[in-house]
Amino acid sequence: MTEVATRTALAACRGVSVVYGHGSAQLTALDNVVFEIGAGESVALRGRSGSGKTTLLHVLGGLVEPTSGSVEWQGQPLSSIDVAARARIRARGIAHVFQSANLLPYFSAFENVAFAAHVSHSRQPLSPGALLELVGLAEKADNLPAELSGGEAQRVALARGLAQRPELLLCDEPTGHLDSDTGDRVLSLIEALREEFGFALVIATHDNDVAARFQRQVEL
């Protein structure tokens, strides 16, 4: 996948490849990918399972180092930034919502959101209670993840991501484990929150109907 760069991007991959393993066991997850997203933009990454969508999200979010090529944040290569500064970018600027909510199992919904706000060291954190109210779960604040439905857990994961006031939200198949009605409500919530807070959004999906809801679609 290659796109033509037209502006200073919020986040970008420049000729990025990711290769796992060696010899006969070698697997190329990404091959010379050029991709960028601007501030406030929304992009859907389409592709079948195994096409590299998750790997690209992880590279953009600083969770995976590329084998070759460079990853940029606000026009600056991450490789040129010291380790502490990169950690601050990941903590404050970039949030992840995974296919499974991945909530801390022994923390309540409120505590999951509050913990994310604490570790991000955001200078303007949002109140965990206010965030849960935004996603319609104020009454579930004291519930543990096991006491939440799949859709509720995913909404808590969204609130947790927003707690750090991100500039970029990366969503990996956030409706993959949900029924169609619940998935539609979660997507509508993501779109509404992006409109309210102005963060950029990259969502990975294999569902063409989901991808069609977004401003720009890129196929892997």
What does this structure look like?
The protein has 220 residues and is of the alpha/beta class. It has a domain at 40-52 and 83-219: P-loop containing nucleotide triphosphate hydrolases (Rossmann fold). It is 33% helix and 24% strand. It contains seven helices and nine strands; from the N terminus they run E-E-E-H-E-E-H-E-H-H-H-E-H-E-H-E. The protein has helices at 53-60, 83-93, 109-120, 128-134, 150-162, 180-197, 208-211; strands at 11-20, 27-37, 42-46, 68-73, 76-77, 94-97, 168-172, 200-205, 216-219. The strands form two sheets. A five-stranded parallel beta sheet has the order 6-7-8-3-9, sandwiched between helices. Strands 2-1-4-5 form a four-stranded antiparallel beta sheet, covered by helices on one side. Strand 7, helix 6 and strand 8 (200-205) form a beta-alpha-beta unit. Helix 3 packs parallel to helix 5 and helix 4 (128-134) packs across helix 5. The longest helix is centred in the last third of the chain and has 18 residues, at 180-197. The protein starts with 10 loop residues before the first strand and ends with a strand. The model has no long low-confidence stretch (mean pLDDT 88).
